[in-house]
Amino acid sequence: MKKILLLLICFFGLSAQAQDKGSMLIKNGTVLTVTKGTLPETDVLIKDGKIAQIAKNISAPQGVKVIDAKGLFVMPGIIDPHSHIALDAINEMTSPVTAEVAESDVVNPLQINIYHALAGGVTTIHALHGSANAIGGQCVTLKLRYGTFSLDAMRMEGAPRTIKFALGENPTRVHGGGSNIVPRTRMGVEFVIRKSFSDAKKYREDWDAYNKSKLVKGFRGAPPAYNLRLETLAEILKGNILIHCHSYRADEIMMLLNVCKDFGIKKITFQHANEGFKVAPELAAYGAMASVFSDWWAYKFEVYYSSAYNAAILTKNGVVTSVNSDDPEMMRHLYLEAGKTQKYGALTDEEALALITINPAKQMGIDTRTGSLEVGKDGDVVIFKNHPLSIYGVPQFTIVDGIVRFDKANDPADMRLWADPKQNLEEATFYEKGTDHCMDGTEFLFTSDKK
Amino acid sequence: MKTNQLIYGLITAVFCALVFHLDAQNPKGKYGTFALTNATVETVTKGTITNGTVIITQGKITAVGSGIPVPAGAEVIDCKGLFVYPGMIDGGTNLGLSEIGSDPRTQDFNEIGEMIPQMSALTAVNPNAVAIPITRVSGVTTVLAAPQGDLFAGTAALINLHGYTPEQMYAGFQGAVLNFPNTGRRGFFDRRTDEEIKKGAENAQKRMSEIWDRAVQYSKIDSATQGKAGYYPEMQALLPVVRGERPLLIEANAAKDIQAALKWVKEKKIKNVVLTGVTEGWRVADDIAKAKIPVIVGGVLNLPSRDYDRYDQAYANAGQLFKAGVKVAISSGETNNQNYRNLPYHAGFAVAYGMDKAEALKAITIVPAEIFGVADKTGSIEPGKDANLFVCDGDPFEPKTQIKQVFINGWQIPLVSRQTQLYDEFLKREPGVSKK
After folding, report:
1. I need a labelling partner for B179 at 20 to 30 A (CA). Which of A143, A440, B67, B263 fits?
2. Sign of the C-alpha dihedral computed for residues B143, A343, A298 and B417 taken in this order
């Protein structure tokens, strides 16, 4: 039975992939390009999934769908740089270092949360490994092509590889507290990361030496043992995998910044970084980036000294900053979360919108493809009734690669792609909000933790 | 001699003020007579007054209107271009009862026992909780501090977010919390089978009914013996509830549970009931309306409770309940991260997804005041009411709107919290990257 299902999924997957890019003309909207200003009464033409033209009075090519956006706001698709939706597993918490595992292996295109996110204007997400390990698994960048049954069709083709690191309470609680192995403290976390990088460096050198001597005639040595974990870590050292590090406190952020400096790693984004504002000058000087909550705090001790002004302080100090959700509910209104930075720190419209578009795109290394409305970029667009930074902003259409994936007026209520025939339809789930989801899959360790 | 004393006194006072200013966690509030002039006053109950004045004297609102004289000695606050609103009321928090979400040692909302209405939230509210200033500077002046836990989890108290003792903070309402036996799941980690959930709820319902019947019995004995029924603290705590003098706040979220609660209330003839949470209230809105039971919707910014429901169903819940004729208050439901300051955004989302704007404003001001029986004291801008209000520069539901003044019980609250202090310290940090 399972095999038949798998075959079916493969079949649908392939057929869905074939029609992944569309064309359309969005007429007369107020176009918030994010990088090139706001254009009143302007048209956006998408051809075969790419933005082909942004101008007034574009006439519709034959057969191209037209959306009348008069009185509406057209902005780039929202990007969530920290999410755990569309994944079947979050934490491989069996070791403090698990660089060898990859979320791209467990993408689940059928989750209803994907549609919920689209309805909140999100078109691209960074689906992260959890934060149980000092060095966690590799993450995956997804386009929310909801409707496909194919894992491959969900992945954003060509997006750089990324990996999750984690500092502070989570890795120390899981490994030191849960399994009585290093790290139990922030000292241990630093050591685990330094040791891993040092091992990876040695591994790379051994391979380089082997590859070099292999060329010498008559060489008879054996190659070093292949190790996927070290292989992955070595790619980080080379700059081929971007680090996204779960972190909260200023001291731990400084620690990893120093480690990166010592190992020549340039590209790093601190995720959450609730105390990022305390070391904003250091982050800016290094070129490190930060992806933060708008206002979440107090859910654990290491976020007790947070400030809702974090994003504004970071931005004004020159740090490339994004606002993320880490939560399937908050993910649906990242535009509200961005709007809060106008209350907490008076960011301009453009600065606030950049937090959920071009800046996360930079952090994920996809800013040449998405994050703003510019000719040549992907046709990822969301059309709002009312300004997206207003509380009354409501997404009407969400478009991915030129295909409408959310249509408020015409979508049926039930948008599931998959229904469990044994599902108890009377059953309701009440979602507990306000906690970070980076620890999903480890809760069995802490059942005695609760009062 | 007298002048000398006066001068010394003054010097000491100034010195103390300076020292306190440096050391205190928060600067002090100010009490007296204030005139908020040239404001657009959203009274909530008596319409909008343009170019209006609000006079605050000794803790009370003493006059509201246009062309009102400013009393001698009043501090005049020019509110040209600004708006005056009644303080927002969050009818479902654990503010003051929890400091840090993951640390049980800092949590006082969840006592042990399924029959503990004598556990009083008011006694455990920490007036100096860091979240209190963080909440009030956003215009939320009053909250229900509520216990959580098993069936009869304790007694909640309405508190104003200024004061240094429970007495100073108490806002005149207490209600017993009942967590109605829940058949819903609590999230992805809830791995109970359907059967386990059903059995669990059935057993809990049985125990709940037994407890209530005993309380009714106790009330009768208490009446018959003129209060000499003996020391049964949990029964004594339920006396005013059994007699309808104090509301029973029943938390129910699944449609089935709400219906069961309505049935149970009817069966037991419980007079004074408020439903809280009501996430799936919209499914049974007519039943709630018919029972004439008011509700406090526990948060608008939620996911749909069933995967086949429309994506915006949680946003639309409050508006749909109102349309069905239910009396609706909105609370934030942001207990895990102490973000009660987001209350206006919950109301704003209800508006974006169908609720009338004026009704959504009432749902976080006068309606909760009515539900808690304190509408004579708070919830609107009217003469004679406690001066719980805020001044802002725009629509309070809009995230870009800035709060300019907050008054609680007539105290002018400094717009300072630990989060604003961190902003002031770190926006332009000194030293920057260099050592100097």
Report:
1. A440
2. negative
Contact B184 A425 (CB under 8 A): no
- Give CA angle at A142 (A141, A147), nearest 5°: 170
Which of A299, A313, A415 has its CB closest to that of B102? A299
Domain coordinates in residue numbering, chain B: 88-378
Q: Which H/E stretch holds residue A196?
A: helix A186-214
pLDDT digits 0-9 by tens, B254-281: 999 999 999 999 999 999 999 999 999 9
**Contact at 8 Å (CB) between B89 and B47?**
no
Whether B5 has its CB under 8 Å from any CB of chain A: the answer is: no
What CATH topology corresponds to A122-216+225-370?
Answer: TIM Barrel (3.20.20)
Facing residue for B280 by CB, picked from A309, A428, A449: A428
Neighbours of A253 (CB within 10 A): 27
Q: Collapsing DSSP states into helix, strand and coil, what is residue A292?
A: strand
Q: Do A429 and B194 touch (CB under 8 A)?
A: no
Residue of A nearest to B186 (CA): A430
Residues of B in contact with A257 (CB under 8 A): none
Residue A75, judged by CB atoms within 10 A of its CB (0-12, 13-18, 19+), counts as buried
Closest residue in B to A448 (Cα) is: B104
Q: Report d(CA B430, CA A368) in Å as an integer.
A: 36
Measured CA to CA, the distance from residue A145 to residue A78 in angstroms comes to 14
- Give yes or no for a contact between A74 and A40, defined as CB atoms under 8 angstroms apart: no
Q: Please compute the mean of the pLDDT values over residues B94-113 and round it to a whole number.
A: 96
Q: Which of B93, B89, B101 is nearest to B136 (CA)?
A: B89
Given a cut of 90, whether residue A19 has pLDDT beyond it is: no
Interchain contact B99–A (C-beta under 8 A): yes
Distance CA A52, CA A11 (A): 32
Full-model pTM? 0.94
Instruction: Point out the residue among A295, A391, A435 whose CB comes nearest to the CB of B398.
Output: A391
Side chain identity, residue A414:
D
Angle at A420 between CA A414 and CA A421, to 5 degrees: 105
Distance CA(B302)–CA(A332), nearest Å, equals: 9
Contact B270, B297 (CB under 8 A): no
Omega prior to B431 cis, within 30 of 0: yes
End-to-end CA distance of chain A: 44
Q: In the structure, how many helices (H) and strands (E) does chain B have?
A: 13, 16
Residue recorded with tokens 């950049």? A354
Residue A332 with chain B: CB contacts under 8 Å: 303, 311
**Domain extents for chain A?**
1-76+371-408, 122-216+225-370
Answer yes or no: do B280 and A415 touch at CB < 8 A.
Answer: no
Residue B3's pLDDT is 56
Q: Are B147 and B154 in contact, with CB atoms under 8 Å apart?
A: yes
* Interface contact flag, B429 A343, Cβ < 8 Å: no
Place of tokens 């491959």: A152
B110: nearest CB among A386, A415, A451: A451
Hunting for tokens 């982050």 — which residue is that?
A283
**A394 and B CB contact within 8 Å:** yes
Beta-carbon separation of B306 and A425 below 8 A: yes
Tell me: pLDDT of B23 over 90.
no
> Residues A280-289: pLDDT tens digits?
999 999 999 9
Per residue in A369-380, pLDDT tens? 999 999 999 999
| CATH code of the domain made up of B88-378 | 3.20.20.140
CB contact under 8 A, A329 and B301: yes
- Greater pLDDT, B156 or A5: B156
pLDDT of residue B186: 73
CA distance A426 to chain B (A): 8
Q: What is the mean pLDDT of chain A?
A: 94
Specify the CATH number of the domain A1-76+371-408: 2.30.40.10
